[in-house]
C-alpha cells in the first residue's frame, strides 16, 4: 500500500466558473448524459455511448445529430451529446426541425479534441445553432485544441448551420475544420464568425479550414490563420484594424447565381464581398468588421442580396 497522499482529480468547471477539484459537485466524465429529450431514441433514452474520454491534456468528444424525413415531417432520431456538447431539440419552425448546441463545460481548451457530426438525411430540413459564443482558451497546457465540424446533406435535403461566434482568447491555440459533403440536389446555408480577442486583448492563434464537396467534387477549399505566429494577419491586405471576420456559404441548385462579385459596406465600418464559386450553384460571402454586430449585419445583407438574386 502506497502511503503517499492522494491528490484529488481535477475536473473542468462549467463555463464561467473557476476550475475545482473533483469534489463531486461537477464531473466532466458525466457530460453527455442527462434527461431524455424529444430527439432521443425510442424508449426515451439516448443511445448508449459511454462517457467522454479524458486524458491529462484535454477532452476527446464527438457529438452527433441525425435528421430524417419520415414521409410527413422531419424528425431527429439521433441526438448524441458528448463532452462539452449538450444537444437540445427546439420547437420546429414550419417544416424545419431545429437543434441547439449548449455548452456543458468550458471548451475548447488546450489539448481538447472535439468533433460535431451533423447529417441531414434525404428530404430532411434541419437547422442547428448554438446557445452562446464559443470561447477558445489556453487551459492548463499549451497544446493546441482541435474542433472538427462535419456536415453531410443528402439528396433533396436542406441544412442550416448558424452558430454563434467563435472567440479566440489570448494564449489559446485552436485548429478548426469544416468538412462538408453535399449531394447534387441538397441545399446548405453555413455561417461562421470569428472574433479575434476579447475586449482590449490580443487574440490567440486560430486556424480554420473549410472544405466543401458536392457530388464528390470539391467546390471550395479555404484555409485561414490569425494571430501569432501567422504572418501579416493584421496587415492591410488581410484584416487591418478589424478584429471580427466571418463568412457565409449558400448552396442552392434552384437559385440564380449572379455572374459578378458584389462589394457591400465600406473599408472603415467593415465590408463584405459576395462572389459565386467557380463550380456549382454556390455563393460565398467573406466579411471583416470592427465589431461582431457590424459583422453580423454585413453577412445578413449578403444573404439578403443572394436571396434576392435567386428570385
TrEMBL record:
Q: Does the keyword 4Fe-4S apply?
A: no
Classify the source by domain of life: Bacteria
Positions of the UniProt region annotated as Disordered? 1-54
* Keyword set, alphabetical order: Chaperone, Cytoplasm, Nickel insertion
Q: What is its main location?
A: cytoplasm
Q: Provide an example Pfam family for this protein.
A: UreD
Answer yes or no on keyword Cytoplasm: yes
Q: Low complexity compositional bias: what residue ranges?
A: 39-54
Family label: Belongs to the UreD family.
Q: How does it assemble?
A: UreD, UreF and UreG form a complex that acts as a GTP-hydrolysis-dependent molecular chaperone, activating the urease apoprotein by helping to assemble the nickel containing metallocenter of UreC. The UreE protein probably delivers the nickel.
Function field: Required for maturation of urease via the functional incorporation of the urease nickel metallocenter.
| The protein, known as | Urease accessory protein UreD
What is the native source organism of this protein? Streptomyces fimbriatus
